[in-house]
Write a structure and sequence with these properties.
The chain is an alpha+beta fold. 45% of the residues lie in helices and 12% in strands. The chain folds into 2 domains: 3-61, Arc Repressor Mutant, subunit A (Orthogonal Bundle); 73-152, Glutaredoxin. Helix 2 (22-33) packs antiparallel against helix 3.
Length: 155
């Protein structure tokens, strides 16, 4: 029995129903593994008494849970309507060019994961880009090179 299994069992016991323990259990597995690998999903499912498919279905709904490894840095570009109206797609495309990856991918060196995100809640400051959970506001395509350079320089 793994440490994760034991911890999820303990979590499960503190809730009236195992369904309520699902998110805390997935979060715990995510913290331990860095993402929700098939093995982590299986361990959670076993401890909760459900199937890995149920755990994966729940995990896939939440942006903060990752089903595959992510880079050391996370760049998220809001593509919701407010940001879309002021050029979010062009910002996302410029990041793809600068990083030489497509949205949803991680650079080959494992440094940066780029992904579009539905909403970052900064509609009045569009386009919003989150870099390692720090918001950049009013981002334009011409700002992207500088942001990528800052990431590469460790700033």
């Amino acid at each position: 029995m793994s440490e994760l299994y034991t911890e999820v069992q303990r979590l499960k016991d503190s809730y009236p129903d195992w369904h309520s323990a699902m998110l805390p259990a997935l979060r715990l597995a995510h913290e331990k593994h860095g993402y929700l690998s098939p093995d982590a999903l299986r361990e959670c499912a076993d401890a909760l008494g459900t199937t890995p498919a149920v755990c994966e279905a729940v995990a896939s709904f939440y942006d903060m849970l990752h089903l595959k490894p992510i880079g050391r840095h996370m760049v998220e570009v809001c593509t919701n309507v407010s940001c879309a109206l002021v050029g979010a797609q062009q910002v996302l495309e410029r990041f793809e060019q600068e990083l030489d990856i497509s949205a949803g991918e991680t650079t080959p060196d494992g440094e940066v994961t780029l992904r579009p995100i539905e909403c970052l809640g900064g509609c009045g400051w569009a386009t919003i880009v989150s870099v390692d959970h720090h918001y950049r506001t009013h981002v334009k395509p011409e700002d992207v090179s500088r942001i990528v350079q800052e990431l590469r320089n460790g700033e």
